[in-house]
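Sequence in, structure out. Go.
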Amino acid sequence: MFNTYGYFEHFDEKTAGAYRFIEVLLYWVYSIATKTISELVPPPARILEVGPGTGKLASMLSNRGYYVVGIDVSLPMLKRAKRFWRPDFANGGSWRLPIINAKFDAAVATFTLHHWGDHELSIRNVYESLKLGSVFVVIEADGDRFSAGGHSCTKDCLLNVLSPYFNVTIKKTFPLIIAIGRKD
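Output:
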C-alpha cells in the first residue's frame, strides 16, 4: 500500500492507481472543502494544497478561478494529478515546502494532517507560506465521534497543533471535523 520513509507515508503506484476510484467516493468531501474555501477567500486567490494526492480538489478549486499549487511527497500520486492542466503540482512535503514564503492567500489539507508526523515544523512551514490575513483549512475524519484506524483527528489534537500559529475555529459536520486557522 505505502512505504514509510521517516515520518511520512509515500504511496506506491498500485495505491495511487486505486485513488482514482477513491476520489469518486470522496467527491462530497472535496465539495465541502471547495465551498469552505470559497466562503473564506474569493478567487482569484492563491491556494496551497498540502497533499493533493491525485489532484481532484486542486482541479475543482482551479475550475472556480483559484491559482492552486499542490505539494505532495508521492511521485506516483503526482503523476496522476498531472492529468489536470490547470493546477500546478510539485514534489515536496509539509516539513519542507518548496515554495516562497508569504505567497498564498489560503492553504488546505484534506485527510493529510494525520500523516504529517512532525506537526510543529510542518505547521510552521504552512504558516510561513501564507500572507497575513489568510486561512488554513484542515479537514479530517472526526476522531471525537469515531475511530478511523489512526486516520482521524480530534478537536483537541487540531487545536493543540494549529493554535500556536493560528486563531482556530472548529466546525463539525459528521463524519468530518474542519479546522479553520486564521493567520492574524
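Check: The longest strand covers residues 130-141. The beta strands are 2-5, 8-11, 46-50, 67-72, 88-91, 104-110, 130-141, 167-173, 176-182.
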